Amino acid sequence: IESKLPKVGTTIFTTMGKLAYQYDAVNLSQGFPNFNADSKLLKLVQEAISEGYNQYAPMQGIYSLREIISEKIENLYGHSYNPENEITITASATQGIFTAISTFVKPNDEVIIFKPAYDCYEPAITLCGGVIVPIQLLDADFKIDWENFKAAITPKTKMVIINTPHNPTGTILSEQDMLKLQYILEDTNIILLSDEVYEHLVFDGKTHESAAKFQGLASRSILCASFGKTFHVTGWKMGYCAAPKELMLEFRKVHQYVVFCVNHPVQHGVAQYLKNPKNYIGLNTFYQQKRDYFLNAIQNSRFKISPCTGTYFQILDYSSITDENDISFAERLIKEYKIASIPISVFNLDNQDNKQLRFCFAKTEETLDKAAEILNRI
Ligand code: GLN
């Protein structure tokens, strides 16, 4: 059989998750909370099921959910999206991203991505016959070299994908970065795909710089967001995309034939729950405490730590422990030490190995204690 994705295997999240399970390791690999969501949210979804919202939802998502999302974006980022034709509920941000890429990328179109890059962008681009134009983030602090970016733009550039807060590095784009991006994209027709699934996980008093905040970016952007990350329900696989109506019209043409519509009772529950901003505003503090708890517990380990500014991922540099490559080291940590993480090389340009592992700290203190006890022994 001729593969359309000859270079793609099984995702690192599946591989490491499976090994973690097999060896009964403390699992800080795939990103998901190991605690339950707010019981109020669970109850709202249960009620929606009991009330009979169990048939197809409207293709674009229920109106009340799109309306409250529109209000939330306007309050936080000052940009108004019309719920009627500029917001669509998706079965996870991953589906939103896939749909956005397949809606706009044609064969030979170039798509600029920044490496290390989350793993779902490239296969989608390849399946559309697009050309991936990777730009490596700067080594020291994972910043974007904007001159490099500018030089990578050609008449064939169709799309740029950014991700802030950034998975797997835990860094964020600053206002300065966004202004530079806006300036460089001015007078082009380039579409910006802005993956903002960790928008509510930004620490140390910093703010999330959504593409929606910048008029010159918002007018060319598809924003992708996730309820899984925000409400501790990654298994519900629900998110949304927001974009100007010309882009959203095309997006929905594809969306309707990919999933048609998404989980109906969950939409009702989330729409109710989103009405109270307290249900997501405190998330920064909640996860900052987890980050600090984890980092404090491993401060005397042999790992080099540069605290993340966003997401629920912390990169640890193990170069002072061994020069083993990160995939084999990550596997050994599972088998010998019973702790699972994600090796960063799989996301890097040419799979460059910088001796870095990613640990997810969206875990109970009990789990973080167990993890720290192990990491301090390595
Ligand atoms: N976003 C999750 C992570 O980075 C993985 C989700 C998945 O496995 N597709 O860990």
Question: Considering DSSP H and I runs of 4 or more, what fraction of the residues is helical?
Answer: 25-40%
- Outline the biggest β-sheet: 7 strands, mixed
The CATH homologous superfamily of the largest domain: Type I PLP-dependent aspartate aminotransferase-like (Major domain)
| Count of helical regions | 15
> Would you give the CATH topology of the largest domain?
Aspartate Aminotransferase, domain 2
Mean pLDDT: 97
Rg calc: 20 Å
Category by helix and strand content: alpha/beta
- What sequence of helices (H) and strands (E) makes up the elements? HEHHEHEHEHEHEHEHEHHHHEEHEEEH
Proper CATH architecture of the largest domain: 3-Layer(aba) Sandwich
Runs in which pLDDT lies below 50 for 5 or more consecutive residues are none
Whole-number tally of structural domains: 2
Q: What proportion of the residues form beta strands (DSSP E)?
A: 5-15%
Shape, principal axes of CA atoms: globular
What small ligands are held by the chains? Answer: glutamine
Q: How many strands appear in the DSSP assignment? A: 13
CATH class categorisation of the largest domain: Alpha Beta
Oligomer status: single chain
Q: Going across the major beta sheet, what is the strand order?
A: 2-8-7-6-5-3-4
Search tags:
binds glutamine, 4-stranded antiparallel sheet, alpha/beta, PyrdxlP-dep_Trfase, Methionine aminotransferase, 2 domains, 378 residues, globular, 15 helices, aminotransferase, transaminase activity, Kynurenine-oxoglutarate_AT
